[in-house]
Design brief:
The protein is of the alpha+beta class and about 140 residues long. The chain is built from one helix and twelve strands.
């Protein structure tokens, strides 16, 4: 291969990779919600599910000093589900996306309600009870 062809092919590859990265969801799509603790419950506003463009988020992540791992709160058909983001296989922190939670350590995958979809994990994730009112969401710890 001549030098000119090599440079041309490398340039096309770089442009293709850059274009593909725009289509893939990344860590930038994870929203860390603000919350407070009241009577052993995490409290957050329902407005945390609305982004800057007034679009509805599918999930938010909540960090709390009360737990070692974050909690992922999914919204589906007006209902909320809160799951603990610790893999039941070997305890790694899970990575959430719109349709599942994935373990970066060994590849286990869980549904948005915490059920095991792919091993090596064989136990479902811990779920938390969720209560709502007109303005807020409460997660019982």
């Amino acid at each position: 291969m001549e030098r000119r062809d090599f440079i041309k092919n490398c340039s096309l590859l770089c442009v293709s990779v850059a274009g593909l990265s725009v289509l893939l969801p990344g860590c930038g799509s994870i929203h860390y919600a603000s919350s407070t603790i009241e009577q052993n419950k995490l409290k957050l506003s329902k407005s945390e599910f609305i982004d800057e463009k007034k679009a509805e988020r599918k999930f938010v992540v909540i960090r709390s000093e009360k737990s070692q791992f974050p909690i992922c709160l999914y919204k589906k058909s007006g209902e909320y589900v809160a799951v603990y983001m610790q893999c039941t296989h070997q305890g790694c922190e899970l990575q959430p996306n719109k349709i599942s939670l994935v373990c970066p350590c060994h590849g286990s995958e869980f549904s948005t309600d915490g059920r095991v979809l792919n091993p090596p994990a064989d136990k479902d994730l811990k779920q938390f009870k969720v209560i709502t009112d007109n303005e807020n969401i409460y997660i019982e710890l």
